[in-house]
C-alpha cells in the first residue's frame, strides 16, 4: 500500500469520531469517490444508523448476510461517508487490511473499536484530498464490501493491502 503523504489529520478522540483538518478544498474528491462506489452490486445507499446526520451509509439488503458479523458496524451497514466539512469515512476491514491501511497512514482505528465495543476492523479513512486519494479510499471501501459480502477481494484491493 502506498504511504499517504504528509502528517495524519487531527481527529476527535471519541464519538462523534470526526476529522478536524486536511479536508479537500472542494467537493470533487468526494464526488470522484462516490462515482466509483455508486454501482457496487447489491449495495443500498441509506442514511447511517450510527453516524452524524447527513452521513451516507453503504448497506446490504436485509436478509442473509454473507460476511462475518465483525464486517458490519450495525445491521448491514459496512461503511459510511461523513458530510461536509468532515468528508472522512468509516468502514470495517478485515484485521490485516485495517492494519495495513493504518500503517500506511490512510486510516486510524475507531476509538470505540479500540475499546472492544465494535469490530476491531472499524477504521476512519481520512478524507481524500484529491482524485488519487479518492481512488485509494474507493479501494478500501471495496475491501470493506468484499469483507461484508464474504467475497474475494478485488485484484486492485489485494495489491493495495499486500495480499
From TrEMBL:
Signal peptide: none annotated. Residues 75-144 form the Luciferase domain. Residues 1-29 are annotated as: Disordered. InterPro entries: Luciferase, Luciferase_dom. Residues 9-23 have a biased composition (Polar residues). This is Phospholipase. It comes from Cellulomonas fimi. The lineage of its organism: Bacteria, Bacillati, Actinomycetota, Actinomycetes, Micrococcales.
